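fwd from M.: "can u put these together and see what the complex looks like"

so here's what she sent:
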Amino acid sequence: MCSSGMADEALFEFLHMEIVSHVYKEQQSGKGEMDNKDRAVCVSVLEGMGFRVGQGLIERLTRDSPSFKDELDIMKFICKDFWTKVFRRQIDNLRTNHQGTYVLQDNKFALLTQLSSGKQYLEQAPKYLAFSCGMVRGALSNIGLDSVVTAEVSVMPSCKFQVVVQKL
Amino acid sequence: MCSSGMADEALFEFLHMEIVSHVYKEQQSGKGEMDNKDRAVCVSVLEGMGFRVGQGLIERLTRDSPSFKDELDIMKFICKDFWTKVFRRQIDNLRTNHQGTYVLQDNKFALLTQLSSGKQYLEQAPKYLAFSCGMVRGALSNIGLDSVVTAEVSVMPSCKFQVVVQKL
């Protein structure tokens, strides 16, 4: 039996929303406003959770996969197989400078589509990207690639993830 | 295209595990051991997150559904459609006293299958049930039923959820 996927997607999105709001609420509790340091703590907590989830997921996904040819081959796997499993769509565009930097563009990023496209939400966007950055970093780490992963939004709900692979 | 569902299931399970461990870690931080009050706070936080996720999910699931005939009809919907969307299987057994109490038995509860079946894990089981209890309560609440939802494990990974509908 093939499930529609709609409510499953929703399950991940709702759960992610709850985590984000919980982590920010707990960091803020008792304080008036959050400062940059508070926000950095939240981003780091969410990134860490994403990292572990990404590690676990890629382990299942690559269990029966042949080994990868090269770094680009790994990145393509992340853009297609990994992204589809998590976000139900492939990355729209992958670019690289062939020196270890990759830009993955998702024109309709699932975790942003629930946010409105107003300017005040654009400012909020980074808090909804930390978990996913961690997830990509965790997945890559499990395949043996250390990386730094960041993300930026210019026009909602489009999102660019930048992966910089750390050479030994 | 029909996805296998394996990694999607895993996504929810891994995310749930991260939430549970985060909530317990933050409550414990700085203390030596957790007391019953600390544990109650954790259960309540997880239950609340589940409640909101359940509300959101049932809203999507019932959007195109005809209205329900009666209370039993609602419970059957939870056991079949709702459970399948969240846990990829139906409830194995539904019992009721026809006075507002329902027992839903899942013989292979997804959020317990990753735990080992040793006795020390049986003691840990309650912390993996709070979120799901909240989710059922949230779903029912959105259909107009106030309820108290508890869960117990006797033999892993089998689990019984008890729903007591609150009459006005």
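replying to her w this: Chain B touches chain A through 29 residues (CB under 8 Å).
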